[in-house]
Each structure stands twice: as C-alpha cells, then as structure tokens.
Amino acid sequence: MTPVSAGGAALRADIVKCDPNPAQIGQYVNVWIKIENIGNTRAEDVSVKFIPSYPFSLDAGDETLRNIGILTPDRHTSLEYHLYVDENARPGTRSIKVHYQDDESTTWTEKTFDIWVGEGSDTFDSKGTIQLEKIKTEPEVLMLGDEGTVTFTLKNTATQYTITIDGEEYDTNARVRSATLVSIDDIEVINESYHDIGILGPGDALNLTYNIKVDDTARDGTKHLEFIVAGSSYTYNYDWNIPLKVDSAGIKVIPTKPMTLKNGVANLEFDIVNTHPSTLTSVSIKPRAEGVEFSPMEYFIGSMDHDELFTVEFDAVTESNDSTTKNLTLIAQYKNGVNQHETFIDGLSLEMVSNEPNGGSGLAGIGILLAIFTISGIVIYRRKKH
C-alpha cells in the first residue's frame, strides 16, 4: 500500500477486523479501519472518507466523511463502520474504498479493501496458520528494464488435524482467500491478484507466481514490495515485506596488453569480468574499429558467475597506411534471466606504429600474419576466478 505523505507525515490505512467474517448476505457487517501515522512528523488535520459500493451500504446516520484531526507519529486511530449487505448479493470477494488525507490542502489517497461475502455455510473457523516458507526471484538480481518472476511458497504449519482451545475442538486447515503483490514506483506487478485459492491442509504448501517489470529509470538498491494474503478471517491475514534487489552492474572489460598495431598487426588481450551480483548467461564480446579486421569476429564466453573473470585474445590486422589512432569499441552482449542486454565499451583506442617505413620485411610480416589470420583464427582463452 502507498502511504500519503506531506512534510514528513505519512498515513497508512488498513482493515483490521470484519465481523462477521465472511459478511452475511442480507445482514449487517461491522468493519474496522485503522489509520496510522508512520511518518516522522505529526499530521495536522487527518480526514477519512469511506466509500462503499454494491453490495455494501452504510447504515443510516453513519457518516461517510470523518475528521480525526491531529495524529502524531507512530499513533493510530480505528474507525468502525456499520454496513448492510444487500439481500440479492452473490457470494464472493467484494470491495470497499477508503480515501484519506493528512491535511485539507493535500490530495486524497485511495485504498481499496476486499471483503468476503458468503452465506451461513461459508463461515470458516479453522485454526491453521500460513507461513511464507520460500521466496524465489528469477533472475535473482534484476537490472533496469528487466522482466522477471517472484514465486512465493505458502505452507500450513499445522502438524496435526485438530486442536483444542478452551475445551472446543477446531480443525487446523488454512483457507487462502486472496493473495496480492503490490506494485511500487520502480517495480510493476504485471498480473492480477489471486482469488478464492482454496484450503491448505496441515503441512500442505502451494506456489504463487507473479510477473514483474523493473522501470528503466529505477535506481540501484533493495526495493520493498508488499505481499498481502487474506486468510479465513482478519485474525489470519498476513502482510509481508518482500525485498527485491536491483543492480545495473554488468560486464566490465579491462585491456591487459598494449593496444598497438605494429606494422598493421596486433594481438589484443582483455580481461572480461562479471560485476553483476548474480550469474549472467550467453556472454559474448565483439570488437569494432574502422578499417581493422579481428579474429575471431566475436568471442562467445557463455555463462559467467559473479566476479568470474575470462581472458580473451583477438588478432587485429589492418592494411591501412594511416598512422593516426583508431577508435576501438567492444560490444558486450549477455542475458540476465530471459532479458537480453548490450553494453558498448567506448573510450578505447588503437595506436598505429610502423617500424619499417620502406615496407620490406614489415609487409612480408603482414602477409604471414594475414595467412595465419585467415586459416586458424587463433584465440587464446583462459578462465580464472577472483
């Protein structure tokens, strides 16, 4: 959920209780909304506007707009609303909306809450407890613009089928009514929430997968998404903070030999390092310089773990008599998960040096190297770890 903030004050709205749960068709249901100041300065004039929609309607005399006034940091207030559920309503998940602001000069922030509507037979009073057992992100660390998945494993932690509380026996099933992963500015959750998921018996588990996308303008760092699971009642609702890492670091290229073409030929060597925190795949390097031929034209490395280093060599040949420096660009292509990335390493240059201006053995040397270049395409490959 997104808190509304002004001058350091930040408000958050939550639904903390619904009685009865599920709400019964043709009857009244009481809903408690908590408004909390999670900022570092006090909110001067907090107001809350309750907006019911079908099948809910506010009880006669119940105010839609309520003014709370001052709300200091780390303090909260609870508002109770008395709603009638239309007699023609159908069972299922229905929504209400709450608007809130910390001062009349600020804009309203809207929050939508789901309420389960059922019949008498839908009442569910089990005591199973849901645990977030595992979180898997693919790719493990995201880059700017990446698409990926987050998979949650939910488990009913009960180890027996019944439990006795105050002399009354209850089953230990756990109902999962809905599960929502909430988007933030830097990360968009692409798919919708899960609804009416079902019942987990003791020890049972299920996986829920969400597709996400990182904004192209996101900053590096750990982002926090909210994962909300609605259980059999508000006593069994869950709200987890989910950290996701974003890091734009990729492939780094380090020249390890002088980049000089003597009499038109050179052997160039580069260390290729994966500076990204997780494994990159399909890594390849392409050198480009005007008037220069390279062997191989592209060097394919493959998979590279974090901080893994490869050393690659290219033979470079030019027939140009131009003695000026040539600009060199290395193109690094790689994948993070299913996402294709391409990095251009500029700012490199090849120095042209001629030791024998009269041609002679220098031209002969070029001819020999050209032959080697054409036939064998020698590339030395060395792999090592930091």
Description:
There is one protein chain. This protein folds into 3 domains: 1-123, Immunoglobulins (Immunoglobulin-like), CATH 2.60.40.10; 124-247, Immunoglobulins (Immunoglobulin-like); 251-385, Immunoglobulin-like. 4% of the residues lie in helices and 59% in strands. The chain contains 1 helix and 30 strands. The chain has one helix spanning 360-375, and strands spanning 4-6, 9-19, 23-24, 28-37, 43-51, 56-58, 65-71, 76-85, 92-101, 109-118, 130-138, 147-156, 162-165, 168-171, 174-182, 187-189, 194-200, 205-214, 221-230, 238-246, 251-255, 260-262, 265-274, 280-288, 293-295, 299-304, 308-317, 326-336, 339-353, 381-385. Strands 1-2-4-8-6 form a 5-stranded antiparallel β-sheet, with no helix packed on it. Strands 3-10-9-5-7 form a 5-stranded mixed β-sheet, with no helix packed on it. Strands 21, 23, 25, 27 and 30 form a 5-stranded antiparallel β-sheet that branches. It is elongated, with a radius of gyration of 32 Å. The model is unreliable at 4-8 and 359-386 (pLDDT under 50).
Descriptive terms for the model:
single chain; 386 residues; mainly beta; Immunoglobulin-like; 3 domains; five-stranded antiparallel beta sheet; five-stranded mixed beta sheet; 1 helix; disordered C terminus
Q: In short, what is this structure?
A:
By secondary structure, this protein is mainly beta. The protein has one helix at residues 360-375, and strands at 4-6, 9-19, 23-24, 28-37, 43-51, 56-58, 65-71, 76-85, 92-101, 109-118, 130-138, 147-156, 162-165, 168-171, 174-182, 187-189, 194-200, 205-214, 221-230, 238-246, 251-255, 260-262, 265-274, 280-288, 293-295, 299-304, 308-317, 326-336, 339-353, 381-385.
